[in-house]
Amino acid sequence: SLYSVFTVLFVYFTSISTAQTTDCLHLTEQCINVPDGCESVWNIVEDVCNISVLGNRCKAEDAIGCNRIIQVLADEYPEFKNCVCTTDDFCRITTLLGKQCSINKDNISMETKLQWSLSALSKQAYTANRTCLDVNKECVEDEVCNKQLSLYLKVCSVNKKCNMEECQAAIRFFYQNMPFEVAQMMTFCDCIQPDESCHRAKELLHGKPCAVTKVPLPSCLNVIHVCEENKLCRKKYRTFWSKCWRYVTKKCYDDEACLETLIKGDMPCSANADCKAAYISNWGTMLRVECTCQNLPPVEHSLCKLFHHMLHSKSCFS
Question: What is a GO molecular function of this protein (predicted)?
Answer without folding.
Answer: signaling receptor activity
